From TrEMBL:
Name of the protein this chain belongs to: WecB/TagA/CpsF family glycosyltransferase
Organism per entry: Hymenobacter sediminicola
Pfam family, one: Glyco_tran_WecG
NCBIfam families noted in UniProt: wecG_tagA_cpsF (TIGR00696)
Keywords: Glycosyltransferase, Transferase
Gene Ontology MF terms: hexosyltransferase activity
CDD domains attached to this UniProt entry: Glyco_transf_WecG_TagA
Lineage, opening ranks: Bacteria, Pseudomonadati, Bacteroidota, Cytophagia, Cytophagales
Length: 261
């Protein structure tokens, strides 16, 4: 179990990166239907303003603190508890290594055929014992009920332990929640981690990530798509955090920690 702590009204899982890896692989080994969210500022603000998405995030088996501000906020709202960032971009390759060692199978769902081919090529080159159960790039449009049923059947027939999902936020989180109980695997919404693992997008050096500069780098890469998410959403996050902090200081009751079981 990973202890969850509240950040605003969202329950964020806490622990070290190895603890997250082990917990995720235990979910895969249990062959249960579960999903894992990698929570960033965009998701937390979306959850704060959208009760439906708040429920999606809070019902996740694991909600990792993907963004540095989220990891820091765990301490801000929980008596200074230290929490490291646990990013999907870092956990994807680590999970593949550990899955290969434990004999667990993986499935990649999302993005495009070219990206999936690059992912499989790297995985086979670096991890020849990794069991790749399958890949699928769904169309960039809503699926019909018949198409959705066919895809679920194909995934379950492939029988992966871990199902990596890259459909973009919040689509991938909503997809995992709506398929909870239908897909017999541990689903992980890893988004842009597919492009990074495939070698189609570079990451900043570790020192720059520690200075919280990754958002600026992503904005520089895709300004037209991401300007609103980072400039408007990040500003809203700061405002919400400051308002909640003031409320706590004047005596508003704080949330207690919870455990996922």
């Amino acid at each position: 179990m990973l202890l969850k702590r509240y950040v605003l009204d969202s329950r964020i899982s806490t622990g070290t990166a190895p603890e997250f890896i082990d917990a995720i692989l235990q979910l895969g080994e249990a062959r249960c239907s579960a999903y894992v969210c990698f929570t960033n500022v965009h998701m937390l603000v979306e959850a704060h303003t959208n009760p439906g998405f708040q429920e999606v995030l809070n019902q996740a088996a694991i909600a990792a603190p993907d963004g540095s501000p989220i990891a820091a906020a765990v301490g801000w709202f929980n008596q200074g508890q230290q929490q490291e960032r646990v990013a999907g971009m870092d956990l994807l390759p680590a999970l593949l290594v550990e899955a290969a060692q434990r004999g667990q199978s993986v499935y990649f769902y999302g993005t495009t055929g070219n990206v999936l081919e690059a992912i499989v090529a790297r995985a086979k080159r670096e991890l020849p014992t990794l069991r790749i159960a399958g890949t699928h790039a769904p169309p960039f449009r809503p699926l019909t009920p018949e198409e959705d049923e066919a895809e679920v059947a194909a995934i379950n027939q492939a029988d992966p332990d871990l199902l990596f999902v890259a459909l973009g936020c919040p689509r991938q989180e909503n997809w995992m929640a709506s398929h909870h109980g239908r897909v017999r695997a541990c689903m992980l919404g890893v988004g842009q981690a597919f492009h990074v693992y495939a070698g189609l997008e570079r990451r900043l050096p570790v020192w720059a990530r520690r200075l919280w500069l990754e958002w600026a780098y992503r904005l520089w890469l895709e300004p037209r798509r991401l300007w609103r998410r980072y400039l408007v959403t990040n500003s809203r996050f700061v405002y919400i955090v400051l308002r909640r902090t003031v409320a706590q200081y004047v005596g508003r009751p704080a949330h207690s920690a919870v455990r996922y079981e």
